[in-house]
Structures are given as structure tokens and as C-alpha cells.
Amino acid sequence: MDTPKRVLVSRQFPEIGIELLARAGFELTLWQKDRPMYPSELADLSMNHHALLCTLSDMITKPFLQQCSHLEIISQFAVGYDNIDVDEATRLGIPIGFTPDIMSEATADIAFGLMIATARKMFFLHKTILAGEWGYFKPRGNLGMELRGKTLGVFGLGRIGMKMAKRCKDAYGMEIIYHNRHPNPRAEKELNAAWVSFDTLLAQSDVLSVHCVLSAQTRGVFNWDVFKQMKPTAIFINTARGPIHNEPDLIEALCSKKIWGAGLDVTDPEPMAKDNPLLSMETVCVLPHVGSGTLEARNGMSRLAAENIIEFYQTGTLPHVVNPMALGRKKNELP
Ligand code: GLV
């Protein structure tokens, strides 16, 4: 690079990606605080940078993009990008990079773990020990449910959904049904998965696991009308994005026994308030959005996010791009 490009790095991402960028000759501004930047801080700092390396806690809104239309690339450290107004970025010719697949195993483990933890009331039982309530062995108490031979319904059978489905099939011989906009022939061949209508997914799933993106179409899909069509013995798992379910409706569905349990790695809002009724329910397990939280996945995400920036400046394209239509479009320069 003749004049080094300046990259604003919005959080403390794993070293591996930062080192790659530094070695490739980029000038880096590293945000050192533990908290995300406030929108005004993000906008002010972005003003004199060519590229932004950010993540899901950074709100890349239309006003931000219009103010920072000089940005040449935004590289997101996450597979999801619902924090970014992609249409506006595309209109302004700003390519968005993301980090798919590298965190699919880690996230599927969390979905699978939450399923078992919920079926066996693990988080609740842990709390009874902390409360000094272990007491005697109870032949009829603390009973959960087994998963062998049950039906897993996947809403959004893509990269992560496939890995969750494979775990459920291999471990418990679960039947796999799914609802997608488009059929997934690979899942049908490898997992004997069957595409079903949304209504059938609700009616037949013993465990219903959400793996779709958050979009205008999926926001609030799992609401009261939907929960009440599910089996009263069903477990709802969401490791995708909190706003895909309506939280007050989920609480109501659990309280009125429309469904049996829920395992959540994502909530709405995040962070969840510590007095949220879900946290004291026997058949609910909640985690603080840690789906990709393994050393392997986070290092991989850091590397992919850096490679997206490096390759963009070397070749004009990105290995993992959300909006290819933005590539090569004319746009504003650094003010
Ligand atoms: C995590 O939620 C991600 O989108 O990578």
C-alpha cells in the first residue's frame, strides 16, 4: 500500500486478526474500552478512517452510513449482520464483510447443549443446590424428558441448523423436519430431513430450534399465535437472534403451558434483566449470547474479518461478502 489505509477497530477482537492487519501494513485505531462505542463516538472516530472492523454491538444505521459514506469497507466480526443497514450500505457502494461458517460448530454445540439442559432442567436444578435445597433423593421429583426418537424441527436449516440437526440425529436418532424458504437438498440426502410447512413444523416438533437470520420477515415470528400451535411438551430453542421470538409471548406460553420449555442463547433485549421471569422457571435455560464463544471460533472469526479487509484492498473483492452488488460502485471519498 502506498499510503497506509486506516482501519478503525471497534472492540478488542482476538489478536490474530489484528496482527494480520498490522502485518499487511494497515494503520489501526484500536478501541481499548470494554464497552462498545456510543453511536456518536463511532461516527466521530470513523470520520478519518478508510475501513471499519466492527461487530453486532455496533449500530451501523442509515444515518451513520450517510455520515460515514466515505468508508470503503465495513468488516463485521459475526455471521449475523442485522445491526447493519445493508440496503443503505449497498446504495452507497460500501461492501460488508462477515464471518460465516467458522462459528457454526460452536453455535450448534450451544443449541444442542441448551436442548439437553432444558430437557433435564439443569440450570434450575443447579440453582436449587445454591439455595441449599438439595434435600433427599426424590423418586418422583426433578423429572425431565428424554430425547431419543423425538422430532427436531429446524426453522432456518442453513449452516448452523445442519450441524444442530446432525448432532440430534447422531446422538438420539431424532427425526429432522425443517421449514425454509427454499428446500435444502443436502439436508434431505444426508440427514433424511423433510421440508414441511410452517404449521406442520409447529404441530410436529418436539424440539423446535431457530437458526434463521433476523430480518423484517422473521422478526417476532415466534409469538403467542405460533406458540399456541406447538405441542404442550415442546422445547423452543433460540440461538439465532432474540427478536425472532416475542419475549412476553414466550413467557406467557410457558406460564400457561402452551409449550414445555425454552433454551435461549439470545434474548430481547440483550442483556436480559436479572429479574426476568424466564430466569426462575424450572424448564428454561438462558445463556448470555455465547454461541460463537470458543477460542477456536473467535480466533477464526478474527482471522476471517481481517482477511476480508486485506483481500478487499489487494484484489477488490472479499472472500465473505454480504452485498456483492456494492463492489466496484463509485462512492464518496474520505472527507
Ligand atoms: C453471533 O451472534 C454472530 O452473529 O456471529
The main sheet comes to: 7 strands, parallel
CATH architecture of the largest domain: 3-Layer(aba) Sandwich
Strand percentage: 5-15%
Question: What's the β-strand tally?
Answer: 12
* Rg calculated over all Cα atoms: 22 Å
Q: Which small-molecule ligands are present, each listed once?
A: glyoxylic acid
Low-confidence stretches: none
Give a brief rundown of this model.
This protein is 35% helix and 13% strand. It has helices at 15-23, 39-46, 62-67, 86-91, 104-119, 122-130, 159-172, 185-191, 198-204, 224-227, 247-255, 295-315, and strands spanning 6-9, 27-30, 51-54, 73-76, 96-97, 151-155, 175-179, 194-195, 207-210, 235-238, 261-264, 284-286. The longest helix has 21 residues, at 295-315.
Strand and helix map with partners:
Layout: E1 6-9, H1 15-23, E2 27-30, H2 39-46, E3 51-54, H3 62-67, E4 73-76, H4 86-91, E5 96-97, H5 104-119, H6 122-130, E6 151-155, H7 159-172, E7 175-179, H8 185-191, E8 194-195, H9 198-204, E9 207-210, H10 224-227, E10 235-238, H11 247-255, E11 261-264, E12 284-286, H12 295-315
Parallel strand pairs: 1-2, 1-3, 3-4, 4-5, 6-7, 6-9, 7-8, 9-10, 10-11, 11-12
Helix pairs in contact: 1-12, 5-7
The structure holds glyoxylic acid.
Residues 56, 78-80, 103, 291-292 line the site of glyoxylic acid.
